[in-house]
Write a structure and sequence with these properties.
The protein is an alpha+beta fold and 111 residues long. It has 2 helices and 5 strands; from the N terminus they run ααβββββ.
């Protein structure tokens, strides 16, 4: 029976992240890069369910974990995903709106 991450307890989410990390490492060892990416994305989503979406507000700008070249301006939060736009080091805002798991948002940028 399949459960959605929203049905998991924090402990179950931690175990799932551990399982996915292990699968990603094994895939990396055999050179299956797409499998690594899939498991890392699933890990990010599982980790997002361990955070409180109410800690993230529209109009806030956050650093992006694992991507020091970009920040992310939140337009709105939908579940555990932040919808908004990336901003590069030149302060240029990307035109394309995207959704990222809130687990990818780092520290809020104070302006």
């Amino acid at each position: 029976m399949d459960f959605r991450y929203s049905d998991y307890s924090v402990e179950q989410l931690r175990e799932e992240v551990g399982r996915l990390k292990e699968k990603a490492l094994k895939a990396e060892q055999v050179g299956n890069i797409s499998e690594v990416a899939i498991n890392e994305r699933k890990m990010q989503v599982a980790m997002a369910y361990m955070l409180n979406p109410e800690d993230f507000m529209a109009e806030d700008i956050h650093q992006m974990k694992g991507d020091p070249g970009h920040r992310f301006k939140i337009n709105y939060i939908n579940g555990v995903f932040a919808w908004g736009h990336r901003i590069n080091l030149l302060d240029e805002t990307y035109e394309k709106e995207e959704a990222i798991p809130i687990s990818l948002l780092g520290d809020r940028v104070i302006k």
